[in-house]
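Quick start: read one record
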Amino acid sequence: MIRTPQERERTRQAIAAMSRKLMLSSRVVELCELEATPRQEEFLHKVLAEEIDRRERGKKARLLNRAGFPVFKSFEGYDFSEIRFPPALSKEDLLRADFIPEKKNLVLYGGVGTGKTHMAIAIGIAACEKGLSVRFFTVTELVLKLTEAYKAGTLERLIRDVQQLDLLILDEWGYVPVDREGSQLLFRIIADSYESKSLILTTNLEFSKWGGIFTDEQMAAAMIDRLVHHGHLLLFEAKSYRMMHALMRQPGPDKVKPTTHAEATTRLGEGGA
């Protein structure tokens, strides 16, 4: 195949860029320019491109494995119709995970079984696919890890691991009360994450009740301040998906009226958001 000088130059530039990405010696590029035929340049270009692709796929697999997702979730078929987005965040922004490079937070608020955890995991998996570092914890799980690390003298190592993340997902926020020691450790994670990474929280608890869960109203207010200062609140207004689809669903009790946007906004606002 006859290639023009311009085409050969573009191929050499691509080889040079891939060599830098793979951290290869500049001698590769020099030998290519001095001795390689056009066919050899094409072959080298193909080899380098395939190696980069292999490494990127391996990195994504490692990121997904380390993230600790309990199940695999995606946005395929996901129903957004009963989720109220804030004006500053669109569905497209969410799907692209644009808030992560901006180090903004998401608070996913709504009843049990409305798709909050599904969304959080799907965002986390999409972030891993982009090469971002993610960890998923239930709040109970993270508090337990922090407490054990504190007692074992390895807390700072765990804190450093969390600090290196691009996205931290905390599921079931406020589902189980946290003792004072656990609250203080959790507050440190929130404080250290402020403006340094993105957080996603899923909760069915309005801000005004956080003080009762974390044993300290002042600490809860400080957590809220850090979360909402650079954050978005998404309201999940649907009835419970799990309740509606349970095989053994009983008639009658499932007719509870779902929380409206106005009611949720009012109740969340009571916490000082």
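The beta strands are 83-84, 105-110, 134-138, 167-173, 198-203, 231-236.
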